[in-house]
Every structure is written in structure tokens, then in C-alpha cells.
Automatic annotation (TrEMBL):
Keyword annotations from UniProtKB, A to Z: Actin-binding, Cytoplasm, Repeat, WD repeat
Compartments it resides in: Cytoplasm
Protein name, per record: Actin-interacting protein 1
Domain of life: Eukaryota
PANTHER family, sorted: WD REPEAT-CONTAINING PROTEIN 1, WD-REPEATCONTAINING PROTEIN WDR1
Gene3D superfamilies: YVTN repeat-like/Quinoprotein amine dehydrogenase
Length: 607
């Protein structure tokens, strides 16, 4: 039996306040690049639902850039390593790995012939290095600046030049090869955050946290003038040239982006991106006919020159680890929530993500369930239960003002849709709610970790840190203990099968145990223990014949109820990232989410 990864709904760029983000562009115009954690994410610019994730770095990646030939990508990480890997093969074969500086790399630039490369950042003994991409041989020194270098660019025409932007408020100019320090430019009064040559190399522009953008001659580095006066009210985080070199796009902490006419040095268009802190613009890219900017929240905006107040499209999703997952069974909409409290609704056919509006939890969401009429019920570590409701059928839900205080931290919840009844397991008690009103509570002596309701028999299974599954009966809105099932490790997830015949429980001892619901006896004598670390989550296929389990070991295993000895292992389902949630869309499709912020859809045909 084979499986395939149908889609990857990619994570957004990982942003940080006061720190510019670098977007990479494809010389062929097809893709764009950014980084999140230890991943480099390649997305199709026309159809961003098509994406690819490179995860071979062992620590946080800060920047990735295509070579001008388009055949290679160079990515630099927080340890000072640069990996050069190919873009043609699906496996992204590593061509070279170098350690040019001894600290975080902040920017990378290639020479126009794809032969030489310069990297800059926060090295211990030097802030940048120029070398041959094939051999790693040094072709010059980057010196003359006293603080970390934020940005670098290579002149795309001869005579070759390199310009660097530093936190000592200067721009460094280097001539070569071999590259030697020529001079510094001291026009800026704050950190210089970006330097970029025009496509023909005749000019270069610099931008800084003083809100100013300056224009220089590409060959002599002579100052041509200042663009705007100043260009922005806040720090300028990024600049990008139009393909014809006649215009420049800038993005700023003043929550705007702007297009500048190079000849007149005047602003032609202003894009207002909003008023909230998360609308600060930390990166921009002009690629072909597409103008992109990235907000502090991580969302990617496609700017519309004809309507500057409303982006053409906005790419949403998560840039922090995803903590839970829920499915709306009728519409097949998938909801994901991350540890910053952001909840996203995914259309699983188009891959489009939309954030859920309204005042949510503001921090980690621990439990989530689909409710009636497209609504969503969530609980978070703000010790509350909240409800999101769509304004019209088919619309993305928004949080309402309704909020139920829980009294202690919730760990999980489950919901019976027909009766609008919710059970929340908190660290101290089990709460039963009808709608948003509390019906009963049952204090517990153990710490619950998960909860599942069986709608027909009204049995409730609660997994605990005491290595037991506690079974309760639910009658007239209150719970009474029924039996206990013992595991060899803390129980991490419990799920009843859709046909009400089975209960599956997973634990930290790497095992899954299947029970028949009538007497809570073992359903078979096969041991399901093929994971190599704690199992985090389990999910039933709609026909109750298969179970998916996700683990700390980054793999997903599909188990067969009818043939317990058979299983399919999806290794490295989320490379270098544990699986935190699973659900089945239909009998042959599984959705998985992980600590890497990506949501993946897998096609797993029946035998």
C-alpha cells in the first residue's frame, strides 16, 4: 500500500519585532522563498497552495536565496552555516555546506554568474565573507564595519561591487574580485537595514531605521539623492526594485508600503496595511507582476497597485507550532490552532486559509471541536471556553463575546453535536456544559490529558497522566465513574470509533491499545507499538476500519482494525517536527499538523 502527500498548506514566515525578514525570489519568476524555524519554504507565486519545504538545517534558518541560474538555493542559519542545495530534484540534493562566519547569517547574495557568493551577519571575528560557491575558497574580505551587517548585495554587472548595510549606521562598499574594502557611506543616522542593486547594476538603494531611502551610483557609489524626505514615518525594513529598474518598492514599520519613481525620486503609490501593531511591514518583494509584502503577524499580502487599500489576496496560516486540529464534517473544513492563539480555517480543496476573527484566547489553544451550523468551540490556557460562529452559511466563523470561565486550565474538550453538549477536561475537574451553561462538574484526583464522548452509549473516556483511561457514564448532564483501563505510560489521546464499537487509546510508552466498547476488553492481542517515541494523537477513518496515529518521532502510522498485523508507516511526515494533531477527511485522506506550523494532506488508498 502506498501513500502520497497531496498538499502542504505551508507555514507563514517566522517574524520578530524590530527585525527585517528577507524574501528570496526565483530568477525564473515561478516561486518565492522564505524561512520559518529550521525550514525553508518554497511557494508558487501564482498558486501559493503549491509549496515545498526544505528541512535539512539543524537550527533556525534566517535567509534563503536562489542562484541567478535558478538551479540552486543557498540558505544560511543561526549557527553561521550555509547550505547550497539543488532546486531541480524533489530530494533537494546538497551540493555544498560551508561555515563562512561564526554566528547568525542575516543575508546572502550571489554574483550574476552564480560563481561567487557573499554572506553577512553577526560573526564573532568578522561580519561577512566572500567565497566561491563551488569550492568555498575565499575571494576577499568583508571588513571596515564595526557592528553586525544586516543586508548585502552583489552588483549584477561588471565591474563587480559588493555593498553591505550595517548596524553601525554605515554602508560598506567593496571592489573586486578579490574583494577589498573601498569606503563607507555615512548618510544614515540609524541602523541600515537593506541595500539592493537595480536589475542592471547602474544604481543601488539603501534603507534604514531612520525612515530614509538613499540612491547611489552603482559603479562609483556616489550619492545620487534621497528618495522622499523622509520616505517613511517609521523604520524602513525592506526595499525591492521593479524588473525594469524604474521603480522601487519599500515597506516600513509605519504600517505602509510605497512605490517610488526613481527618476523623480517621488512616491507614486501608498499601500495602507492597517492600524494594528501586527500590520507593521517587515519585508517586501517585487517579482514580475507580483508585489508582495509581509506583515509582522506573518501574513503575506499581494499588493494591488490599482486599489492600494485592499490587497489582491492575503496568504494566512500559522507561523508558530500548531497545537490542535478539528474537522467540520459536513463542509470538510479543517480548523487549526497554534500556541499564539491564532485559529485558521482551511478550505481543503483550494488550500486557502483564513484567520478566525474576533477576540480569541490570545494564547495557546488546548482543545477545539466543531459545533452546530459551522460553529467552533475552543478552550485555551486563559482558562476559558469560547465560541466562534459564522455570520452566514459557508462563511469563516468569528469569535463571539460569549466566554465561559473554567476556573482552571483546560487540557481537552469533546462535543456531541446533536445535543449541543460539551465536556471539558481541566487539570482539576471534568465540566459538562449544555450550550454555554454549566450543567455539572466532577473533581478528579488525577490530571486529565484528553477526553472523548461516545454519543450512542453516552460513555465518556478521559485519559490521565496517571497512566489510566477513566470511563464515565453521562446521564442527565452529570458524570458517574464506570471503569478504569491501565496503560504502561501516561495516556495522551483517546478516541471512540464512528461505529461506536471501539475505543483506541495512545500513551507516552509508544503504544496504541484498542478496546471493544461493550466490555472494555482488548479487541485483539496484537501489540501496536511501532512508534519509537511518545504517541501524541490518534484519529479514526469515517468507516471505522483504520486508525492514524501521530508521534513525537515525526512519523504517522496507519493501522488496520480488520488486519491488526498490517500497518503503513509515513516516516518523516513532518521532518524534524512532532505530529500534534490528525483527522480523516474521508476514508482515504488524512490531515496532519505539527510543531513546524505546516498542515499536510495525505492520500492513503485502501489496500
Amino acid at each position: 500500500m502506498s501513500y502520497s502527500n497531496k498538499y502542504t498548506f505551508a507555514a507563514l514566515p517566522r517574524t520578530q519585532r524590530g527585525t527585517p525578514l528577507v524574501l528570496g525570489s526565483d530568477p525564473k519568476g515561478k516561486n518565492f522563498l522564505y524561512t520559518n524555524g529550521n525550514s525553508v519554504i518554497i511557494r508558487d507565486i501564482e498558486n501559493p497552495a503549491i509549496s515545498d519545504v526544505y528541512t535539512e538545517h539543524s537550527c533556525q534558518v534566517n535567509v534563503a536565496k536562489y542562484s541567478p541560474s535558478g538551479f540552486y538555493i543557498a540558505s544560511g542559519d543561526a549557527s553561521g552555516k550555509v547550505r547550497i542545495w539543488d532546486t531541480v530534484n524533489k530530494e533537494h540534493i546538497l551540493k555544498n555546506e560551508f561555515q563562512p562566519i561564526g554566528g547568525p547569517i542575516k543575508d546572502i547574495a550571489w554574483s550574476a554568474d552564480s560563481q561567487r557568493m557573499v554572506v553577512v551577519g553577526e560573526g564573532r571575528e568578522k561580519f561577512g565573507h566572500v567565497f566561491m560557491a563551488e569550492t568555498g575558497t575565499s575571494v576577499g574580505e568583508i571588513s571596515g564595519q564595526s557592528k553586525p551587517i544586516n543586508s548585502v548585495d552583489f552588483r549584477p554587472a561588471r565591474p563587480f561591487r559588493i555593498v553591505t548595510a550595517s548596524e553601525d549606521n554605515t554602508i560598506g562598499v567593496f571592489e573586486g574580485p578579490p574583494f577589498k574594502f573601498k569606503c563607507t557611506k555615512q548618510e544614515h543616522t540609524r541602523f541600515v537595514q537593506a541595500v539592493r542593486y537595480s536589475p542592471d547594476g547602474s544604481l543601488f538603494a539603501s534603507a534604514g531605521f531612520d525612515g530614509k531611502i538613499y540612491l547611489f551610483d552603482g559603479a562609483t557609489s556616489e550619492l545620487k539623492g534621497e528618495i522622499g524626505s523622509p520616505a517613511h514615518k517609521g523604520g524602513v525594513y525592506g526595499i525591492s526594485w521593479s524588473p525594469d529598474g524604474k521603480k522601487l518598492l519599500s515597506c516600513s514599520g509605519d504600517k505602509t508600503c510605497a512605490i517610488w519613481d526613481i527618476e523623480t525620486m517621488q512616491r507614486t503609490t501608498t499601500f495602507n496595511m492597517g492600524n494594528a501593531v501586527e500590520n507593521q511591514q517587515v519585508s517586501c518583494l517585487w517579482q514580475g507582476k507580483h508585489l508582495l509584502s509581509v506583515s509582522l503577524s506573518g501574513v503575506i499580502n499581494y499588493l494591488d497597485v490599482d486599489n492600494p487599500d485592499k490587497p489582491l489576496r492575503v496568504l494566512m496560516g500559522h507561523n508558530k507550532p500548531i497545537t490542535c486540529l478539528a474537522l467540520q464534517p459536513t463542509t470538510k473544513t479543517v480548523f487549526t490552532a497554534s500556541h499564539d492563539g491564532c485559529v485558521t480555517s482551511w478550505n481543503t480543496t483550494t488550500g486557502e486559509g483564513r484567520h478566525i476573527g474576533g477576540a480569541g484566547h490570545g494564547n495557546q489553544v488546548n482543545g477545539m471541536c466543531a459545533g452546530k451550523n459551522g460553529s467552533l468551540i475552543t478552550c485555551g490556557i486563559d482558562d476559558s471556553l469560547r465560541f466562534a460562529v459564522p455570520s452566514a452559511e459557508g462563511e469563516v466563523p468569528s469569535y463571539t463575546d460569549k466566554c465561559v470561565p473554567l476556573g482552571s486550565q483546560p487540557r481537552a474538550l469533546d462535543h456531541i453535536m446533536d445535543e449541543d453538549m460539551t465536556i471539558v477536561a481541566t487539570v482539576k475537574e471534568l465540566l459538562v456544559l449544555a450550550g454555554s451553561s454549566k450543567r455539572s462538574n466532577l473533581p478528579v484526583s488525577y490530571e486529565p490529558s484528553c477526553v472523548a464522548i461516545e454519543p450512542k452509549s453516552k460513555h465518556v473516556a478521559v485519559g490521565g497522566a496517571d497512566s489510566k483511561v477513566h470511563i464515565y457514564s453521562l446521564a442527565s448532564g452529570s458524570l458517574s465513574p464506570k471503569t478504569e483501563l491501565t496503560h504502561l505510560g501516561p495516556v495522551t489521546d483517546v478516541r471512540y470509533s464512528p461505529d461506536s464499537m471501539y475505543l483506541v487509546a495512545s500513551d507516552a510508552n509508544r503504544k496504541l491499545i484498542l478496546y471493544s466498547v461493550d466490555e472494555y476488553k482488548l479487541a485483539h492481542n496484537k501489540e501496536w507499538g511501532f512508534h519509537s517515541a511518545r504517541v501524541n494523537c490518534v484519529a479514526w477513518s469515517p468507516d471505522s476500519k483504520r486508525i492514524a496515529s501521530g508521534s513525537l518521532d515525526t512519523s504517522i502510522i496507519i493501522w488496520s482494525v480488520e488486519q491488526p498485523a498490517k500497518h503503513i508507516i509515513i516516516k518523516n511526515a513532518h521532518p524534524q517536527s512532532q505530529i500534534t494533531g490528525l483527522t480523516w477527511l474521508d476514508d482515504e485522506s488524512v490531515v496532519s499538523v505539527g510543531q513546524d506550523g505546516n498542515t499536510r494532506v495525505w492520500n492513503i488508498p485502501k489496500a
